[in-house]
Structure formats: structure tokens, C-alpha cells
Amino acid sequence: MSNFSVEELAKFQDVFYKFDENDDGRISLNEAMHAFRLLGFSPNVGEVQEMFTEKESLHKGSLDFPQFILILEKNLKTPDSTEDIIKAFETLDPKRSGYIRASDIYTIITSLGDPKINSEEVNEMLREADVKKNGVINYREFAKKLGES
After folding, report:
1. Cys-Cys link to 19, which of 31, 46, 78, 110 (CB 3.0-4.6 A)?
2. Tell me, what's the pLDDT at 59?
3. How far is Cα 137 from Cα 134, in angstroms, rounded to an integer?
């Protein structure tokens, strides 16, 4: 039985299937790393590779959703620091510019984020964070605001 709430499991499942690029119900090591980071976890590659090799039922170096949850339960702690939030946003910023679209942040937070933060609060934080009023947010500054909420 999982130690995660129904809401957490739904969020993890949503992220898992977003990274299941070929829709086969499995994710690769690379996809798993991206999924963990989007969820705010920051495992090192060596640890995740070790987890992959420890799993008896791995199929061609990939994980299914129950194995993904098992790794989360056994090896990762709940994220909550500003630095963890920044790392999650960095997965959406491959050029490491420090900026992503406000609409992307809104979608992530309202669909995958903390249920204690409602859409009005997210919109208010985004309005405050979008200092140039151009729809682009400095996610490092935004992560600090999220940590304060």
C-alpha cells in the first residue's frame, strides 16, 4: 500500500504519463529523471541508475507506474524548498534562461501543484511576478513567492 495520498498519486500518475513519450506505459531512465525533477525531487543520476538495476521486473531499462511509485516511496523525500521548486521549473527551461511563460506556470501549478493554492492565488502571484507584463516570468523569483505561500 502506498504512503501517498490519492491526490499525490494522481499528480504522480499525470506526470508519469506526460513523460511516457511513446505511450507504452513505461518510462526510461532519462524520462524518469525528468519526471522526478518536475515533481520537485532532485535525485542524482547514479542513485536512479542503481534503483533501475535493483528492480527485478525492469523491462529493457524502463519502469512502469507501480515501479515509479516504489522508487518515490523508498528513495525520495517530499520536496518543499525553493531550490526544489526552481529545479522543477528548470526542466521546462532547456536553455536555462531563467524565464518561462506565465501560462505554463499556471497550468503546472493548477493541475499538479499544491491543492491548498487556488487558481485566484496563482493568478495573483503570476500578476505580481510578471513585472514586465509580457507573459514571461522569472521562475526563480516566482519560486520564492511560492515558498512564502
Report:
1. 31
2. 59
3. 8
